[in-house]
Amino acid sequence: LGLHQFPTRQQRVEGAFNAWIAEHSNSVNPDQAHMLRLLRNIVIAAVEENKYQTLEPEVFNHPAFRRLGGRQKVEGLFGPQRFTDILTELRQLLIAA
After folding, report:
1. C-alpha distances in angstroms, 79 versus 28, 39, 55, 72?
2. Is the pLDDT of residue 54 over 70?
3. pLDDT tens profile 67-91
4. H-assigned helices in the chain
5. Per-residue DSSP letter, 56
6. pLDDT score of 67
């Protein structure tokens, strides 16, 4: 009928990331928030290009991450366990999106 337009996969992924970041905004420092926004942008672009549909490990091979130190840098910002927990949570959100 054209009365309602369903969100695209890209919009759902962006919404899931934004909701997660907003929910955790008081527990991340500015450097961590920057990395999370970068991760969001890279994943959204990959979804748009149908490159991959979930948070795959190769996302950290993206040139934007490599310039900043790659997965090791991101893991160092959060700590190994928290980094693993964050990735698990984000993967679950993306699968559901």
Report:
1. 12, 16, 18, 10
2. no
3. 988 889 888 999 989 988 888 888 8
4. 9-23, 30-48, 63-68, 70-78, 80-96
5. -
6. 92
Specify whether the CB–CB gap between 9 and 47 falls below 8 A.
Answer: yes
Q: Which residues contact 12 (CB under 8 A, 6 or more apart)?
A: 97
Answer whether 53's CB lies under 8 Å from 47's CB.
yes
Tokens found for residue 23: 């929910």
- Sign of the dihedral through C-alpha 86, 91, 96, 97: positive
Q: Residues 74, 55: contact at Cβ < 8 Å?
A: no
d(CA 43, CA 71): 15
Specify whether the CB–CB gap between 32 and 78 falls below 8 A: yes
Question: Angle 30-48/9-23 helices, nearest 10 degrees?
Answer: 170
The answer to whether 10 and 48 have CB atoms below 8 angstroms apart is yes
Structure tokens at 48: 């748009």
